[in-house]
Automatic annotation (TrEMBL):
Residues 33-210 form the GTP cyclohydrolase I domain. It is an enzyme of class 3 (hydrolase). Keywords: GTP-binding, Hydrolase, Metal-binding, Nucleotide-binding, One-carbon metabolism, Zinc. Belongs to the GTP cyclohydrolase I family. It comes from Gluconobacter japonicus. It comes from the Bacteria. The gene is folE. The lineage of its organism: Bacteria, Pseudomonadati, Pseudomonadota, Alphaproteobacteria, Acetobacterales. It catalyses: GTP + H2O = 7,8-dihydroneopterin 3'-triphosphate + formate + H(+). This is GTP cyclohydrolase 1. Pathway: Cofactor biosynthesis; 7,8-dihydroneopterin triphosphate biosynthesis; 7,8-dihydroneopterin triphosphate from GTP: step 1/1. Its EC number is 3.5.4.16.
């Protein structure tokens, strides 16, 4: 008899995509182009007609670009660090625009990420590095909740701040252009770690600065 709890736990474990880099298959572009040709044929199109002749190759390159974050470890960016012993206040980078791809439908997700952290021991990273981390995790087949968590986890792993808060607001094309067809609806996800996880007042203060 199947142990449902064990199955659920395995599924959950498998869902934990590693934060680090995958290796890119040597024949990735060729396989992608073949797959796109198959899709065109399956919908009844003729991949040899003039307008579609270069499409499989173009789409193959496009996928390798939008999934480029699979082949990097975004945590590397956070290794650029500075110290400012006297800085004990929160650092906030708002409105980091990103594009991602939902892993269920492989349709675009676009939105803004806001990242805040409370440095520990005056340990800072470059402001642009927060945007690079968001970009790195966005350029993967993603779940918005997982992406929010991964950004927070990367900050904890490398910068070890006293607290971190990540908010992502995004529109999912799989909800806008197909299925339920609910254009304009936005999904908001938040992850708080460190002292902001339990300090409600501090978390609300940072949240209002992030979203204000
Ligand atoms: N939690 C979460 N769900 C997502 C995300 N991106 C897409 N989804 C949802 O994933 C679900 C997949 O549901 P399914 O019933 O398996 O697929 P479907 O029949 O295409 O679902 P519909 O979109 O409702 O037509 C949908 O409800 C999507 O809205 C995400 O980042 N996080
Ligand atoms: Zn989707």
């Amino acid at each position: 008899m199947t142990d449902l709890n064990a199955t659920a736990m395995t599924a959950c474990k498998d869902d934990q995509r590693p934060l680090g880099a995958l290796s890119r298959p040597a024949d990735a572009e060729e396989r992608l182009a073949n797959a796109v040709r198959t899709i065109l044929e399956a919908v009844g199109e003729n991949p040899e007609r003039e307008g579609l002749q270069d499409t499989p190759q173009r789409v193959a390159k496009m996928y390798l670009e939008v999934f480029g974050g699979l082949y990097e470890d975004p945590r590397e960016h956070l290794k650029t660090q500075f110290s400012a012993d006297q800085h004990h206040a929160a650092v906030i980078v708002k409105d980091i625009r990103f594009h991602s791809m939902c892993e269920h439908h492989l349709l675009p997700v676009h939105g803004k990420a806001h990242v805040a952290y409370l440095p520990a021991g005056g340990r800072l990273t470059g402001l642009s590095k927060l945007a690079r981390v968001v970009e790195g995790f966005a350029r993967r087949p993603q779940l918005q909740e997982r992406m929010t968590d991964q950004v927070a986890q990367a900050m904890e792993d490398v910068l070890a701040p006293e607290a971190v808060l990540v908010v992502i607001e995004a529109e999912h094309m799989c909800m806008s252009m197909r299925g339920v067809r609910s254009p304009g609806s936005t999904t908001v996800t938040t992850v708080a770690r460190g002292t902001w996880k339990h300090d409600h007042t501090a978390r609300m203060e940072i949240l209002s600065l992030l979203r204000g």
